[in-house]
Amino acid sequence: MGCFKSYVICAFALLVPILADQPKIVCNYETKAHLREGQGKFEVSDLDPALDICTHLQYGYAAINDNTLKLVPLNEQYDVIKDNYRKITDLKSRHPKLKTLLSVGGNEDTTGEGNEKNLKYRELLESSTKRIAFANSAYTLVKSFGFDGIDLAWEFPENKPKKVHSTIGKLWKSFKKTFTGDSILDEKAAEHKDQFVALVRELKNAFKADNFQVSLTVLPNVNSSLFYDPRNLAPNLDFVTIQCFDYYTPQRTPEIADYPAPLYELIDRRPDENCDAQVKFWMQNGFPGSKILLGIPTYGRTWHLTSDAKVDSVPPEGLDGPGEAGPFTKESGILSYPEICMKVGNPHAAKSKPPSPTDFKIIPDATKKRGVYAYRLPTDNQQGIWIGYESPETASIKAEYVKAKGLGGVALDDLTLDDFKGVCGYNRYAILQSVRTTLQ
Ligand SMILES: *[C@@H]1O[C@H](CO)[C@@H](O)[C@H](O)[C@H]1NC(C)=O
């Protein structure tokens, strides 16, 4: 059929592929950031400049009720009584193309410990009656607050961290593993994998009349090959976000620091602990690349350096747990991007008043495969700290990767830890802006 038949059809036929190729920029929004102090306090009004860029805003969080296993607000007081759910979905009147999704779980809805940790996320899957009740409760929640769908940041068990042992330790570990099977994360992983496919299908069905979206976020250290079936999930998922970061954190591995969000494989690391391996896994198992989003963190992980630390190679030696807390996030072992740039300085600042040089040494990523880090050795009056982080430059390298591989876009985790005030010498939301510029 020729284009001359009808201008309308012709324009449409040309436009559809262009629209379909628009990269997605999914922005996570951690609402508890309103509790932070000083320049870290994040208000709803801070979202506005980001929402000109984000195609989707994911509200953190909704939770599974411990008794009924239905979907409920995580923080009833803030989300519902103080009306924050509604305030967020109302933003669509100013940003008509924005989709708002309710994010489920995200490691914020935790119960129990050890093998019992977050058991409800598996219990729910095991009964079709409970799954249907969950799907119906999700429909009601999404519909009544005006969201466009949900994102399942499902809390499957996390991989055990890799340990570095002396030779004797290594022998002991393989002995223990053989005899106690302590590496098995979930005896029923294969069943849970199939049941999760069913849940996604049931959700999509429950959402059909309103065309609500269902997406999945693979949380850090959740092993896709154990719990997810890409080929059978594909028909009912709008997209999947792969959070390929936090393989090493000061809590998981107090004595091993590493690049927190490597794009490619690192020396002496498990081969699947990087973005490229994860993306390949999903694509090789039948999931369309155009529906895969690369997760990009906006924060860094920090370790405390002892007085006999050796930092001239990676991983550094002489670490003992989380680095000192930052002034806004006030949590040891983690720093937001603005906390990092104010500490270590910013050699790339384009605008006036860049943060002044400091006693930190920054090691940029010449390989474009690993990420950036900075450190300060301990002195008599200052603690030593090692910071592995994502910068606007490394985030842009990841956006290049997304383009080169024909992926669907990126998902930022999260807006409240990006430089939303613009203190780093760039415009507000430095990492988000950098990703957008590269994807365009
Ligand atoms: C994920 O599971 C596969 C087996 O299904 C295993 O080979 C791989 O090592 C696991 N990855 C991690 C990081 O534990």
Automatic annotation (TrEMBL):
Signal peptide: 1-20
PROSITE patterns registered for this protein in UniProt: GH18_2
Biological process according to GO: carbohydrate metabolic process; chitin catabolic process
SUPFAM superfamilies listed in its UniProt record: (Trans)glycosidases (SSF51445), Chitinase insertion domain (SSF54556)
Gene3D superfamilies, per database record: 3.10.50.10, Glycosidases
Primary location recorded for the protein, binned into one broad class: secreted
GO cellular component: extracellular region
InterPro entries: Chitinase_II/V-like_cat (IPR011583), Chitinase_insertion_sf (IPR029070), GH (IPR017853), Glyco_hydro18_cat (IPR001223), Glycosyl_Hydrlase_18 (IPR050314)
Residue intervals of the GH18 domain: 23-440
GO MF annotations, alphabetized: chitin binding; chitinase activity
Transmembrane helix keyword on record: no
Domain of life: Eukaryota
Keyword entries, A-Z: Disulfide bond, Glycoprotein, Secreted, Signal
Similarity comment: Belongs to the glycosyl hydrolase 18 family. IDGF subfamily.
Listed PANTHER family: CHITINASE, CHITINASE-LIKE PROTEIN IDGF1-RELATED
Name of this chain's protein: GH18 domain-containing protein
Organism of this sequence: Brassicogethes aeneus (Rape pollen beetle)
